[in-house]
Amino acid sequence: MVYETSYDTGLKPFNHDKNRGKWASPDDFFFACLGHAFKIDAVFILPSVLFFDLGIYTLIPYFITLGACVVPIVFMQSFLGQFSSTGFISVFRVSPIFKGIGYVSLVINLISLTYYAVLGAIPLFFFLHTLKPTIPWSCEGAKSWMDIKANSSSICTYNNETYGNYTELEVPSVEYFDKELNTMGLYHRTHPEGKFSWFLMICSFLIWGMVAIVALKPIEIIGKFLRYSCLTVLGIMGLCLLRLLFLPGALDGLKDVFNPSFFMPESIMMVPFLAFSALGPGWGSVLTMASYNKFDTNIFRYSWLLCLAQVGMMMGVGFLSLLVMNYIARMDPDNIGLKYIHSQWMEFLTIPTALTYMELPHIWSLLFFGMLILGSLNLLITQLISILTSVFDEFELLRGLKKEVTLGTMGFMALTSIFYCSNYGITIFETLAQISILTQMILNLLLLIVIVWIYGRERFQRDVSFMTDQTYSTWMVNIVRYVAPLFIFIAWLAALAFVLIHLQKLDSRAIIFLLAVIAAFPLLLIPGYSLFRIYQTTGLVGMRMRRCARPTDWYPVDPSDRQRYEERFNEGEISHNLFTETDE
User: Fold this and answer.
1) Which of 65, 136, 181, 203 would bridge 141 by S-S if both were Cys, CB 3.0 to 4.6 A apart?
2) 3-state secondary structure string across 503-566
């Protein structure tokens, strides 16, 4: 036999869900993953690095990161999902002792799903207020509510006079959101007053309602929605870029992209964050989306296309941000500086004001915020489907309750997202988003070790060649085996330093302790599950460990593919890394 079965260990064998479905088109996999990469918190951090510090030279470490580890990881996840036709828990039939990694991924994805609703709620907040006859954050609308504080001035009122000690220019759209949640105070005061937004909560519930409409459909319908919504997002982005090119002074700062004026080492630390963001807040979304592919889909091509498309999308958002920020900079001729805005919210809160200076500001504002809302829906839907698919694949009893489990999960997520409608929740959201990337790097490092060292290089190459009918060269496997793990570890150290720098801004030991617990506790599931799995297996301890580490029920689920797999290979062709004669 090519594989062992669960009967050998006394456990129930894996039973594939025959009703899970497939993508209507192979391109749906590509657009689902690309839409998942459009995480507003990630793609809008890039401009502050790419255009205001390192310039075009950011692409050098960015492409090195992609080639050294991101593309190999995307390929490996695509292979695992497509070969097994299962989500990120059941896929560990390839080495059951490490299934705890799948459960950690489930916890991380659930945690991130609670706070990612805010990425759609904030654009929806601005979208709904844009429907007013006068846009509130325009200079005309700001007259009725904006109070210019001491030692500051608004870009609407600044007239090149000397203001003595004033230190910053306020942006109406920034102040409008700050009035709602007092978010800026979190970065200027040790103990800011807590504030909650009922309107933002309503926006969050509306976002989850939109997700529910799509998530309850069959996977073929969901795939078509993700495909056309992703194309719509890219189309609106291109339209906005074309229009912003004609803003006065918008092109003045393009020379800074090719000749950056200063360099900050911290920016290099942020580059791996941006590259790894293509894989999702936890890991497993690419793997689960690939599980809906046909068995012979060309994952070689899609792995490269997906990573390159993610770079192009971030570049597009980066240029969009650059054009707007250069335009606003014209309102600050003395280089006093706009009011401090944390990079996480820079484009959320600054671009709305720039749009009010354009002709037909309502139309352009609705298009811009509609693009962000649609991109956030793609992210939430992909994340939710990835979680639910993995749960239904692993727990057979829940497959008959898919509608109830889906609605229950979304209801729970909607309730927990209420916390993130407060200014304290915004702080937790931003920090959790960064910590989740650190955890993701660790899980991907473990995944590489499991596949190319535990499962084995030769078996991995054999399965890839069988599935794709293409040769997977040894030098490519060696990149996955040696270069990628080393690079991930180095990138993890750099990302850890970046997170520690951010945590220094949080003058709250309670928050830092909470975040440390949230980051560390899920990782305890990995050794915990390994011990549980060994306990379930029969035999001596050494034999139990080897049996739990070897592939169990690892085969293509389609009967015809499974038959070809069994006929072409046999266990004697390639000895397993953990195989010994005493196990027979």
Assistant:
1) 136
2) HCCCCCHHHHHHHHHHHHHHHHHHHHHHHHHHHHCCCCHHHHHHHHHCCECCCCCCHHHHHHHH
